[in-house]
Amino acid sequence: MQVDKEAYAIIFGVKKFFQYLYGRRFTLLTDNQAISKIFGEHKGLPVMSALRMQHYATYLQSFNYEIRFRKSANHANADAMSRFPLDISDPENEIEESDAVELSQIDTLPLTAAELGQVTAEDHTVQKLIQGIKHGHSVEAKDRFGVEQHEFSLQKGCLLRGIRVYVPAPLQKRVLEELHSTHFGTTRTKSLARGYCWWPGLDRDIEDMVANCADCQSVRAEPAKMNLHCWETPTAPFQRVHVDFDGPYLDTYFFIYVDAYSKSRSKYAGPSRPKVPSICIARSSASLAFRQSW
């Protein structure tokens, strides 16, 4: 695993300074002797090496480089900038890593933290939840959307569920438009949204948005064509009868049935739909019509 990390560090550095390195000869210094052997310009990659290592080696083949091994004790200058102590007299400038991640999630949305915090403070549906988080007391399940309370946190007045930002109703339309700006399908848009934001009914809102998007519907795949089912031709009267209810029309319901063989039609009217099953009415009506035909 450590070899993979060391290899990726080299790939990251080469990609970072691609415009300065491509087309020029340069030297790679590493304190991992295995990496210096694997990526050596005069040695091939072992056949049984991991697939990602093969990808790294293939990428480096497009560069003119020389790799050298240097002991860690001699790498005193490699991390000078990242490990040099900062003279910080104001502790308020120190931000914990978890806070930095949450603030980054908020900045990703097409909203500012101040705007989101103000609208969240005016959202009455989360007021009890916010107070419970601030004062450390539990709230009822209906006040936390049926979600465990420990999943929620506050960051500059903004409510988060894990690392996903809660978006109040007045701002949801703007976030949905941003999520669907590239007209991804329903599944891809849901996957994208679940990484950044959350509110009750988010999946349903995405489905409705995509279903009502004219651009998405114009390029969607047409449903599979099915063969039409044709009724068998009857060979005798009342072998097959089609029945249905119609109404109310002028406070009247109609029971209509059509004989498929003779195409004769009959109807019965009443002030309301009958309480007996339709099959019973159809049988009695067909029996009466059959007797009248004789």
TrEMBL record:
<keyword id="KW-0540">Nuclease</keyword>
<feature type="domain" description="Reverse transcriptase RNase H-like">
    <location>
        <begin position="3"/>
        <end position="63"/>
    </location>
</feature>
<dbReference type="Pfam" id="PF17921">
    <property type="entry name" value="Integrase_H2C2"/>
</dbReference>
<keyword id="KW-0548">Nucleotidyltransferase</keyword>
<protein>
    <recommendedName>
        <fullName>RNA-directed DNA polymerase</fullName>
        <ecNumber>2.7.7.49</ecNumber>
    </recommendedName>
</protein>
<keyword id="KW-0378">Hydrolase</keyword>
<dbReference type="Pfam" id="PF17917">
    <property type="entry name" value="RT_RNaseH"/>
</dbReference>
<dbReference type="InterPro" id="IPR041588">
    <property type="entry name" value="Integrase_H2C2"/>
</dbReference>
<dbReference type="InterPro" id="IPR050951">
    <property type="entry name" value="Retrovirus_Pol_polyprotein"/>
</dbReference>
<keyword id="KW-0808">Transferase</keyword>
<dbReference type="InterPro" id="IPR041373">
    <property type="entry name" value="RT_RNaseH"/>
</dbReference>
<keyword id="KW-0255">Endonuclease</keyword>
<feature type="domain" description="Integrase zinc-binding">
    <location>
        <begin position="167"/>
        <end position="220"/>
    </location>
</feature>
<keyword id="KW-0695">RNA-directed DNA polymerase</keyword>
<dbReference type="InterPro" id="IPR043502">
    <property type="entry name" value="DNA/RNA_pol_sf"/>
</dbReference>
